[in-house]
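Hi, here's the filled form for the chain we discussed.

Project: internal
Contact: R.S.
Residues: 129
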Amino acid sequence: MSITLGGISLPDLVPSENLRFGDSRVKAIFAESRAYTPIIFEQHKGYVEFDLTGGPQSAWIKYSTLVSLQSIASVPGAEYVLSYESVLYNTRFRNWDQPVIEADPLVIKVSPGNDDLYNNVVIRLIAII
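And the returned structure, exactly as it came back:
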């Protein structure tokens, strides 16, 4: 399973169920609303909160990837394309939900190198629907 976020490859991270099932929930709301009100393009634009997560034994990322993610997360309001299972989502980082990115180093170092690995990754995002 391949995930990319803003062009950054994040292999083996798993999105929370909000992303996987949130889209069908939004479509159901659209279907119900069509019977009662005319739909104006982007009238019902909203978002679904979700996390990309990895565990202690999976989805390890390198320090260089973590730095790249922190760099793009620091741009307020910027949208990035998330590719997951051949579906593209417009996403933003949930900057109000700190820390936006969490990760634990496998080996704690004062000055980590680019190839040092991190696990227990959590990236907090919203999908713009």
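Let me know if anything looks off before we file it.
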